[in-house]
Amino acid sequence: MSDQPEQLQKPRPRRWRKVLVILVGLVVLLALSGWIYNYVGRTRLDDAIRTARAQGLPVTFADIENEMKQWPENQNGAKIVLDMAERLGEINRQGSELDLPILGAFLNPSLGTKWTDAVQNKVDVELARWADDIAQIDKVLNYERGWLTADLTPFPFGPVYAGDYATLRTAVRLKALQIEVNANRGKTDELASDVDVMLRLGRFVNQPPFVIGSLIEAALNALTFFQVETVCALAHPSDDQLVALDHLLAEIDLLVSFQASLVGERAYTIGTAQPFTRLIPRELRFEPITCTTDGCSHSHTLTWIPGIAGWHIRNHTQTLDALTRALAVEADPQNPHRFYTELRRQLEPRDSSYHLSNNLLASLSRALKITNRSVAEVTCARVALAAERYRLATGDFPETLDQLAPDYLEELPHDPFNGQPLRYTVSADHVIIYSVGEDLTDDGGDVERRLHDRRERPKDFGFVLLPVEKRGQPPATQTAPASNGEDLSL
């Protein structure tokens, strides 16, 4: 009997201690799992970087800078225009008396219709203000290449915000205005060299290589396409001039340019992954982007929490792998559709759980579509120039595009969106060479706003040629028309 009270008095372990032990064990287990997840993420990132380096292309900002710094400063054609930044900036700061093409709107009431006398006189005055500047811009013809900067750090997108891109865009607009002034007078003597200037300036914006530069290049090429179409609707370029234009357009390879721009995007991806590989606590705030040759320092995530850094690293690794795959795709000049399709496929995310990477890759895929639209327009322009040469030689446009090869084109290019032959329609009012566009639907050559009194976006992409008797028509009235042309503001 004496032993029983002692047993009743024996203390029992409290339940909260067991709960505490279990919780501590779970925390330790989660922390350990997080650190392992971080380690595996960093390992995969290192493997992805090694795979990228095996391509032999620049991988980091330092690699790009070293490659760019090999170019002597006296070979930089872009410097000519960049030195004019203050002067060209007056166009945007002060504006002009008219809503001019250099400001993003066009004065053509309809395709093939000339300006009114009042508009022509005011444009002449405006253009005279910039005659010396245009002559300076023309000096880029003496340079084969140009670049905006050879210093990508501490902020790789500096040229965008520093106004360098805006300066080049303004120079292209100014040149476009000169082309249109001459076209309204039926002058085409300098057309090929003027277009060459516009295309060279477009190539300059993609150095250093980033997708933003590639998109601006595509937009500037779209403006060049617009001007060539306008000239053919207002004037009568000779066969030699059409051949020279075709040679210039044949040198444009926007898909290759887009692919090259992924080099900079990959370097940025690697740079922004670096903070997550360092076990440094960060506050929950967004820091300004600052990049060095070691990486970029922006983050708004608590990267010290186990597992969070690993998740971000895997996001960056998925993007890095996709960019490396896209850079490995071989260009196919004879089949841009295959090249475009393969680039899109490689830019697709492979793991849907990494939404940051998925959003970025989706943005790049959209940018690729925009670039391919410009490819379609340039392709249609080349075929249209061949059709115009055919008309000059025979007196009529061809009944089918097959009649253009091999005398006017070595071979007929295909639609870069679907890989099928380009569409061709002939009527008494116009000839249209067109691509079905992104929706892959043939809308009958609905390509040009200036053919109709409407403002909705065209459904197809293409080039319009007018019959000789409909070119360079006088304006319906002698009042300045409201622009219903396509807005190509950049």
Explain how this protein is built.
The protein is mainly alpha-helical and 490 residues long. It has one domain (16-490). The protein has 16 helices and 5 strands. It has a 3-stranded antiparallel beta sheet with strand order 3-4-5. A two-stranded antiparallel ribbon has the order 1-2. It is elongated, with a radius of gyration of 29 Å.
Task: Give a brief description.
This protein has 490 residues and is mainly alpha-helical.
Number of helices: 16
Range of strand content: under 5%
Overall structural class, as computed from helix and strand content, comes to mainly alpha
What is the straight-line distance between the termini?
Answer: 99 Å
Strand order of the largest sheet: 3-4-5
Mean pLDDT: 82
The shape is: elongated
H-E string = HHHHHHHHHHHHHEEHHHEEE
Count the E strands: 5
Helicity, as a percent range: 40-55%
